[in-house]
Amino acid sequence: MTSVRFATAMLPCLVLFAACSETPVARGRGGSGGSGGSAFDTGTLPSDTSSDDASADADDAGDGSAALEDTTLDDSSNDTAAGDTAIDDTTVADTAVEDTTTPDTTPTDTGTVDTTPTDTGTVDTTPTDTGAIDTTPTDTGTVDTTPTDTGSVDTTPPGYICGSAPTYTGQVGGLFAPAGGNPLPVLSRSAFTYGNANLSNVALQFPVVDGVIATLDAPISVIGAVVVATSYLSSAAVPASQSNFWVADRFGSIEVRLDFTNAANVPPFPIQVGQRLNFTVSAVNSYQGMGQIQAASNWTLVSSGAGVHLLERTNSLVTSADLSELVRVEGTITGGGAACGGTSRCFDLSYGTSNIVTLRTASTAAAIGQCVTFVGPVRQFAGSLQLDAINFDWLATVL
C-alpha cells in the first residue's frame, strides 16, 4: 500500500497561522522527480475512512481523490449526505389493541320492584253459607255450638218414672223468640185443628230423587200455614231460624229450607213458633227422603200465638208417617254415643215398652242413663228415623 507524508516545509505555516501558498511536495518511494515525473505520486491513496457526526470530510469534495463518502449513520435523524444508505427510522407504530374490556351490560339497578300484593288484611275465606242442602252421606245437621249447651232441664219431682207423664214442650209455649205459640198435645193427626193451607198440593211436587231441586211451572200459594218449629237462633245477619223452619196444616208438616243469601227468598221478618204465614212456593227439593220447600216469595205474617200440636209418641211407635211432624218422645238413653257428623253424637233412646229410636244431638248434657224429653220434628238419615236435636231447645234432661 502507498503511504503519504507531508513535507516539513509546511510546519512554519501551521505554527505561525500564516497563509502559505506553497503546495506541499509529496515524497514518493521512487526518489526525486525526473523528467516526465509528476508533482504527486500517482499511486492510489487510501480512501478516507474517518467518521464524523454530521457531514462528509472536506477533502472528499475537491481534491479529486477517490476517498469514500462518509457512510456513518447519525444519532438523531435520517442522514442527508449523498449516498447515505441508512434505513430511515422505521420504529413500528404502537399497534396495541385499544382497551376492549367488555363493558358492564348489567342493567342499571332501579331497585327491586315489590310485586307482593298489597296486604288488605286477613281475608275471611270461610265459604258463604248459601243454605245449600247437605247431600253428603254423613248428615251433619245444623249445630249451634256457641255458647256451649248444657241441656234444658225438666224440673220433674223426684221419684218420677221416666216417660210416665212428660210435660216438657220444647219451643212451643216458650217466652223468647223464636219460641212461641201454645202447646196442644194430641195423640193423632186427625185431632189437628189447623185449617187447610194447601200444603198437600206442595207435597205432590216433591221430586223422587234426592238433591234435585224442582222449579214449579205454576207456583203454589200457601195460606195460613202454622210455624211449629224453627232451627236455632244464630248470630248471622239472617238467623238460621229465619231460613230453616217447619210449617203445618191439617194434612201434615213440611220443612222450609231457604237460601238465606237471597233476600227476596227469605221472610222479611223474624220467624217464630205459633205464627200463621202466607207465601208462594216456587221450588221444592227432597233430602234423605224428606220433602222441603226450597224457594218461596210474597211472605206475609198473618198472626202470632196460634196453638201448636205436639204428637205424643212416648207410649207409641215413631214411624215414617211422622216424618217432619212435631212429636214429643220421653225415654232413657241406653246406649251409643258415637260421633255421627260434626260435633253430634248418636244415642239409642229407649221409650215406651220396648221401642228404640236414634237420638242425635250435639248437647254436652246428653249421657247414657239419662231420662230425656225430645220435642221436635222427626227426621231420617240413610233410611233410619232420627230425633235430631239441631235446636237445643228441642231436648231436655228430666232426671
Tell me the layout of helices and strands.
Elements (H helix, E strand, L loop, with lengths): L10 H6 L42 H4 L89 E2 L28 E5 L12 H5 L10 E17 L9 H4 E6 L2 E6 L18 E12 L2 E14 L3 E6 L13 E14 L5 E7 L3 E7 L9 E7 L1 E3 L2 E6 L5 E3 L2
Parallel strand pairs: 1-15, 2-8, 5-7, 8-9, 11-14
Antiparallel strand pairs: 3-4, 3-6, 4-5, 6-7, 9-10, 9-12, 10-11, 12-15, 13-14
Task: Describe it.
Strands 1, 2, 8, 9, 10, 11, 12, 13, 14 and 15 form a 10-stranded mixed sheet that branches. The protein starts with 10 loop residues before the first helix and ends with a strand. Among the domains are: 170-309, OB fold (Dihydrolipoamide Acetyltransferase, E2P) (Beta Barrel); 312-397, Nucleic acid-binding proteins (OB fold (Dihydrolipoamide Acetyltransferase, E2P), Beta Barrel), CATH 2.40.50. It is globular, with a radius of gyration of 65 Å. It contains 4 helices and 15 strands. It is mainly beta.
